[in-house]
Amino acid sequence: MRSVLQAVLESAAFRASKQSQRLLQYLVEQIIEGQDEGLKERIVGNAVFGRTADYDTGDDPIVRVRAADVRRRLTQYYASEGGSDALRIEIHTGAYRPIFVENRAHADASMTRETLQNGFASVSETAVGERAAAAAAENPSDSRSRSGSRSGWLTRFRFRFAMVAVMAGTLAAAAFFAIQHMHRSALDQFWAPALKNERPVLIYMGANAVYRLSEPVLDRYRATHDIQTQGSEFFVNFPPGTTVPSEDIVPARDFVMGNDVNAVVNLTSVFIRKNKPYELRWGRDISPGDLRYGPVVLVGAFNNNVTLEATSHLRFMYEHGDRIQDQFNPKQVWSVSSNPDGSVKEDYAVITRLVDAQTHSVFLVVGGIGDLGTEAASEFLSDESQMNAALHNMPPDWSSKNIQILLNVRMLDTSRRVSHVVSVYVW
Membrane-spanning regions, if any (predicted)? Predict the structure, then answer.
């Protein structure tokens, strides 16, 4: 089992992600050693990612996100260099237990190759040569006479046939690529610069400003209240008028909103379909050097400082913490509108793609004023029909240029929403 694991860890699908390597290795080692207890989410987060032993798995989805990334990388590995492996490692959705499965396709293919080649009964080149030699030996003079008379025209025929074949192939290839370009979907054209880049896509989510009570406060509350039936995560019910010292209110760093996680799921679905490797980061798990070469996808706006810095000089920019402004017409702004009960009625988002013509690096931003806008923008970028309908009148060379798309999302009821493109700017 360890040899199977090692082959996977050393593959191209896993070399780009140390965290995914560590997670897969940890999970497999727990199975080998029979430590089922070590497969619980909180224990995995503590052992692999350095989270505290009592961290809130609801607020910090690192194990779930990384496990999804491991599943995606396993799929990529077995679709390429691991396709002939006798054993496959699988981790079913919703679980962290790896299982080893016999590769039936590999076994069936091995049997088939013994009898068939490309769907036809195979005949070896040696056998063909032996038959030709036997025929020549039976009539040597006849063979020589036919050879002399036919060699000249046969050579000319082969040359002309080869030239015609080359020309036909060239024309067919040119026509094929022309048709492919004409019929490429808007989704393919938008993502083309990122998909063509040889580097994995780095997806980065910002963190929200959230505070929590300090551990001493929680320990004192546990000691004086019966909370056994509430589990390790609970609400603290302070009496009215209770004051809490500032030192007992601490930042909950790396807190990620559920809508941002949903946005990442939508975006990674594109990369999975296109067989494009990607890496997930959020909160403090980033450095300036990570963003230097791209392709990079930033998720979120006002909760992502990198987004605010990257878009501050562009036409559609995020302003004052609650709106989008058109720098070409500063009086034009878009903001969130709410229902009487406080729920969001309407939101806006900006989708930005910046392409460096010299380095071919790609920088993309998917961010709404609120988290509803961010999620809607990610749905737009992963939906071929939406993109085709909205971007059918784009200039011919837009797939390699910078672009900003201003998107509006409006709630129809508590669960349904509709999005439409307000403006597109290409340069």
Answer: 159-179
- CB count within 10 Å of CB 164 equals 10
In the predicted model, is pLDDT for residue 418 greater than 70?
A: yes
- Which is more confident, 32 or 163? 32
DSSP string, 101-136: EE-HHHHHHHHHHHHEETTEE---HHHHHHHHHHHH
Structural domains in the chain, CATH included, are 2-109 (no CATH), 125-182 (no CATH), 187-208+256-426 (3.30.379), 211-251 (no CATH)
Is the CB of residue 422 less than 8 Å from the CB of residue 407? yes
3-state secondary structure of 194: helix
Residues in Cβ contact with 37 at an 8 Å cutoff, skipping those fewer than 6 apart = 43
How do residues 58-81 score in pLDDT, each as one tens digit? 777 788 888 888 888 898 888 888
Identity of the amino acid at 387: M
Sign, CA dihedral 193-197-201-206, equals negative
Quick check: bond before 251 cis, omega within 30? no
Tokens of 132: 């030709």
Place of tokens 């260099």: 81
For residue 217, the model assigns a pLDDT of 87
- Asked if 352 and 381 count as a contact pair (C-beta separation under 8 A), the reply is no
Identify any residues that bridge with 335 across adjacent strands, giving them in sequence order. Answer: 323
Closest alpha carbon to 404 in 294, 305, 328: 328
DSSP-based three-state secondary structure for 348: strand
Burial-class residue 85 by CB neighbours within 10 Å (0-12, 13-18, 19+). Answer: middle
pLDDT in tens, 365-402: 999 999 999 999 999 999 999 999 999 889 988 999 99
Tokens of 227: 């909370």
List the beta bridge partners of residue 366.
299, 351
pLDDT at 318 exceeding the cut of 80:
yes
